[in-house]
Write a structure and sequence with these properties.
The complex is a heterodimer of chains A (91) and B (271).
Chain A: H1 14-32, H2 39-51, E1 61-68, E2 71-79, E3 89-90
Antiparallel strand pairs in A: 1-2, 2-3
Chain B: E1 4-9, H1 17-30, E2 35-39, H2 47-51, H3 61-65, H4 71-74, E3 76-77, E4 84-87, H5 100-112, E5 117-121, H6 128-135, E6 139-144, H7 148-163, H8 166-170, E7 176-184, H9 186-190, H10 197-204, E8 208-213, H11 216-224, H12 235-247, H13 264-269
Parallel strand pairs in B: 1-5, 1-6, 2-4, 2-5, 6-7, 7-8
Antiparallel strand pairs in B: 3-4
Helix pairs in contact in B: 1-12
Classes of the chains: A alpha+beta (91), B alpha/beta (271).
């Protein structure tokens, strides 16, 4: 900190940047923690229900949880076998 | 007759786990406790060097687990404190050398031998060695540097401590978590170049049990194989003493959080 430092414009301290980045990533990683545990089970149970109507296998179902500012989206996608009237995918 | 098991862990490597394990174990021994400190870093033995007993390792942790030596034969008695013992890691490259049953038996045998504290020096990462080091713990000292990757990794470790430990699995109450901030440089914090104690506490949502200032004496101590806590003239050594006292339940104010005041000429002309 010498006399000439007064002439420089101060950028945002890097510690502030670090804190903000960490605050966001830590919150995101904490919210993902534990959440996927029930997803495989949910997937299997959904498969059982769907199988009553359409013959699909386990790989045909994909489940994702996505978090956006303030809300969560559970995205479920089922790829139906070829030749069915319902088309290729239902979401 | 039960020993308190303390894991020293961090996730990220190179943040000061072994330095902390050596000083914590020595500090507890200075308080008259009977202490064993175990190196869980199989393949990369280093605690023996920091404790200054590297030339006295005959049998190691894996020898005990495989029944090739007894725990008594394998414990290395510290030169300075007769109630302090070191169990070295083996230099084997076999990653599966440690087993949960084997580790449990060693810890049980130490407890039967009237040890008050068992300090488990975890390897970096979240693989088997790190998992086994924390699995049986009653207390955890999570070592963190004021730096982004270390802070993020320590949050991962805090999550694992809350779920992947015997206490968590048995519903015996949480492992008590102590956050230890090391390599702290107050001058850089004041310049806005380094996360502050409060920043780290805010991000992780847990308060620190101690702050160890960055210090030349830490390297000097490891050079000579003397845990830095024994260097009573160094800030780092004193900060470790405070930390051990706090872990034992004492209340002590944090020290060395402010940069040394600069003189008039330094402030005007820089430097």
């Amino acid at each position: 900190m010498g006399i000439l430092d007064f002439l420089k414009r101060k950028p945002e301290p890097t510690a502030v940047v670090a804190k903000e980045r960490l605050r966001i990533i830590v919150a995101q990683e904490r919210s993902n923690r534990g959440a996927p545990d029930y997803l495989p089970l949910l997937r299997n149970e959904l498969l059982e229900v769907i199988k009553k109507y359409v013959n699909v296998d386990l790989e045909a179902i994909s489940i994702n949880v996505e978090r956006d500012s303030g809300h969560e989206v559970l995205e479920l996608s089922v790829a139906l076998p070829d030749g069915k009237p319902a088309g290729n995918a239902a979401t | 007759m039960s020993a308190e098991i303390i894991v020293v862990t961090s996730g990220k490597g190179g943040v000061g786990k072994t330095t902390t394990s050596a000083s914590l174990a020595t500090g507890l021994a200075m308080q008259g406790k009977k202490v064993a400190v175990i190196d869980f870093d199989v393949g990369l033995r280093n605690l023996d060097l920091i404790m200054g007993c590297e030339r006295r390792v005959v049998y190691d942790f894996v020898n005990v687990i495989h029944g090739e030596a007894t725990i008594k034969q394998s414990l290395i008695k510290d030169k300075r404190y007769e109630n302090l013992y070191v169990l070295a890691a083996s230099q084997t490259r076999d990653k599966d050398a440690l087993t949960q049953e084997g580790v449990e038996k060693v810890l049980d045998d130490l407890a039967k031998d009237d040890f008050d504290y068992i300090v488990c020096d975890s390897p970096a990462g979240i693989e088997k060695g790190a998992h086994l080091a924390m699995y049986f713990a009653d207390h955890a000292v999570v070592v963190v540097n004021p730096e982004v990757s270390s802070v993020r990794d320590s949050d991962r470790i805090l999550g694992l401590l809350a779920s992947k430990t015997r206490r968590a699995e048995r519903g015996e109450g949480a492992v008590s978590q102590h956050l230890l901030l090391t390599r702290y440089n107050p001058a850089r914090v004041e310049q806005g170049e380094m996360l502050s104690v409060k920043d780290v506490e805010d991000i992780l949502g847990i308060s620190v049990v101690g702050v160890i200032p960055e210090s030349e004496n830490v390297l000097a101590a490891s050079n000579s194989g003397v845990p830095v806590i024994l260097d009573e003239n160094s800030n780092a050594g004193q900060a470790y003493r405070d930390t051990v006292a706090r872990i034992l339940g004492e209340t002590r104010p944090m020290r060395f959080l402010d940069a040394p005041k600069k003189g008039f000429f330094q402030r005007v002309f820089g430097g």
